Each structure stands twice: as structure tokens, then as C-alpha cells.
Amino acid sequence: MTTVTPNWRERLPASIRPYFERAPLAALLLGMSSGFPYAMIGATLTTRLAQDGITKRTVTAFSLAFLVYNLKFLWAPLVDQLRLPGLGRMGQRVSWLWFSGLLVAASVIFLGLVTPQDGLRTVALAAILVGVAGSTFDIVIDAYRIELLTPEQLGVGSGMSQYGWRIGSVTAATLALLVADRAGWALGYGLCALLVLPAMAVGLVLGEPPRRRQAIVAKGFSQFGVAVIGPLADFFRRQGAWLVLLFVLLHKIGDTLANLTLRLLLNDLKFSNDEIATYDVGVGFIAYLVGIFIGGVLYARLGLKRSVLIALLLMAASNLSFAALAAIGHSPGFLAFTIGFENTASGIGGVVIVAYLSALCSLNFTATQFALLSAATSVVGRLLTGSTAGALIESLGYVEFYVMTTLAALPGVLLFAWMWRAGLIDGSIPTTASETGSNPDATGV
């Protein structure tokens, strides 16, 4: 009698076995490459400019480079349908993965080479180039992940993607800070550019995602409508779609305002680069991982709606800890608490909200629809950060500013609660799970 020896995955406890399946592990690697460009034009560039003596108004204006991420739905149809010359033989998703990955690496290296002494316009141009390349990379990675994961893997895969995103962003932020103190920003940014490799390796090893569906392509004058208008029309035909989009626009205003100005606060409170790396990056990393785990548990046990509402409340409350830190001053212990609270809340929200956005996407238009939804999540906060945050901090002070960001988060919480009561959350998700990355059981009350 022949006995079959179980493989290493089958020896794992059933509760953690799904995390070690091929698709969720791929989502982890994809997330790592997705997270680091954001760090290059976010906290890292903010710290770099603040240490060069650039004014708060100018530093926060650089957050407008993030707006490129909010416009990515405009060229997402190209990623869905345009076949790249030469590389196209690798497959639609894989060829764009490699093409955009190379663009990210080149733009990050360029950003590391330019300095404020070369002119702030040159630095701004380099930051925008990173935004364009990084957002295109995100379009491909998000579509690849949604099409790779089966419906039952959505919660686990979203969590693994968030783990990867945090690992990538923290690795980039820490590496850039530590190398910059010893060998300059150019080398730090150059080493960070290597973080494109995990996603490119996934594309090379796994090839085209098995659940990818080619959108219907029309010929002649109708091609533009099919490529650009079709994915958007498919979404907006759903019940409550406009309110869903309004929620997506509103729910992260407070969180975005707080996070994109945190490094200014830390610089003014005289935290050193090593302290920032230890607390904001190190403690934040661990807290985010804990939050992702909690988010996965909440998603599995409470369903999508309850877990999203809990996450929204925690994300709003976490901004009050920023106000408390500003009032207390230079306190490494309270900084650790603040960063721990905020990152735990963000980790929970990252899992359940990304799962909700993924559930809203049709596999026929994955790249375009997820690009629209993910781009909308922080556009208002980024506009406010780039246009008014620095001036508000200078006129109000940090404490009042962070209290204001907490209040700014409340409309999104209230809108989600009303949508739940009105049945619009379930109504906005395509009804057939086979057409989406959704888990219909996870949307139940």
C-alpha cells in the first residue's frame, strides 16, 4: 500500500495554512514592490526637505506629487488593453509589470540624484516622475493580485498584500534614512530602487494570472468608449454607486492629512533620524503587522460591513494621539504609543477596506475600476495637504490641526453607517462572485 507524504503546507495548522498558498505569497511580494515608491515621495522626501531647511508650506506642497496616484484611473484602460511592443509576448499583465517596474527604478534613482540646490522645480519634477511610474506600477500590481486570488482567498490575500506594502515602505524608509546619514541620499535611493524586483519576479515565475479576462474590444470610433467609458459605466450602473464613490472620497481625509504631515511634527519636536527610524518606522512596522492580523480576524468573524465600520472609528480616533504628542513634546515613549495606535488602526483598515474595494471590481475591467476606487481614497486629503496643511499648521498649531483631522474623518464614518442601514453596500457589489474578486459571505451582516 502506497502512502502519500503530505507536503509542508499540509503540515501547518489549518488556521495559518491559507497564508502560505501560492497566490497569497505572491500578493505579499507584489505588495512589497508596490509600497516603496510611495515612501520615496512621502515620508522620506518630507524628512529630506525639512532637514534642508525648506519651509512647511513648500514641503507640504510636495504632497501634490501624490495626486498622480489619484489620476491613475485615466490611463488604467491602457494597462487593461494596450499591448506593449516586444514585451507584449510575455502577456498583458506581466509585460506591463516589467515595463512599469523599470520606470519606477529609473525614476527613484533620478530623485535620489537631484537636490534642492538643483532647484525645487527639478526636485518636484523628479517626485512627479516617481508618482507617474509608481502609480502605473500600482495599476498593474492591483489588477494582477485581484485576478490571481480566488474569491475565497480575498481576505487572506488582501492581508498579505498589506503586509507586503508595509514591508516595502518601511524597508525603503529605513534604508534611505540610515544610508543617507552615512553615505548620502543618492546611494540610499539607489538601493531602494532594487525593491521593484519582488513583483517582477512574481510575474516571471507565475506568468499571466489565471483569472484574467480580456475586456471586449470594439473597433473604430466605439473603441474609446469601450476602453475608457465602459469600465466606469459598468461601475456607475450599480445601486448606490455614486454614494459608494463619495464614501471612498471622504473616508481617508483625516488619515491622509495626519500621515502626510507627521514628519513635519517629528522634525519640529527634534526627533533624530535614528529615533524616527526606531519609532515611526520600526514600532510602526510591528504595529501595522498586528493591525493586519486583527483586520483579517475581524473580516472573517464579523463580515465586511462591521469590520469596515470598526476600522473607520479606530482610524478617526488615532488622530487624537497625534494631537496629544504635539502637546506633550519630545517624548520617545509617547511617540511609540502614538505610532503603535495609528499603525494598528491603519493595518485593520488596510485589510478590510482593500477587500471591499476589490469586491467592487469586475474581472473584465479590473485595472480601471480598482484604479478609480483606490485613487479616490485619498485625493481630497492630498489636495488639502498640498494646498493648505502647511498654512493651517502655521496658523493653528499642531494640536488644533490634528484635532481638526479627527473631525474631518467623521463624515466618512457617518456615510458608511447610513449606506449600511440603506442596504447600499451589498447593492453596489456585483451579485455573482464569479465575476468579481468578492466573497459574498464576507459582505453579510
Structure description:
Helix content is 74%, strand content 0%. The chain is built from 19 helices and no strands. The chain has 445 residues and is mostly helical. The N and C termini lie far apart (49 Å). Residues 216-221 and 432-445 have low confidence and may be disordered. The protein is globular, with a radius of gyration of 21 Å. Helix 1 (22-41) packs antiparallel against helix 7, helix 6 (92-113) runs antiparallel to helix 10 and helix 8 (154-183) packs across helix 14.
Helix content: over 70%
* Biggest beta sheet attributes: none
Topology pattern, helix = H, strand = E: HHHHHHHHHHHHHHHHHHH
Number of strands: 0
How much strand?
Answer: under 5%
End-to-end distance, in Å? Answer: 49 Å
Which residues sit in consecutive blocks of at least 5 with pLDDT less than 50?
216-221, 432-445
User: What's the alpha carbon Rg, rounded to whole Å?
Assistant: 21 Å
Average of pLDDT: 78
Total count of helical runs of at least 4 residues: 19
- Characterize the overall form: globular
> Which structural class fits the helix and strand makeup?
mainly alpha
Provide a quick synopsis of the model.
This protein is mostly helical and 445 residues long. It has 19 helices and no strands.
Supply the key terms.
mainly alpha; 19 helices
Topology of this structure?
Elements: H1 22-41, H2 43-51, H3 56-61, H4 67-70, H5 76-81, H6 92-113, H7 120-148, H8 154-183, H9 185-192, H10 197-206, H11 222-236, H12 241-250, H13 253-268, H14 273-328, H15 332-359, H16 366-376, H17 379-396, H18 398-422, H19 424-428
Helix pairs in contact: 1-2, 1-7, 1-8, 1-10, 2-13, 6-7, 6-9, 6-10, 7-16, 8-9, 8-14, 8-15, 12-18, 13-14, 13-17, 13-18, 14-15, 14-18, 17-18
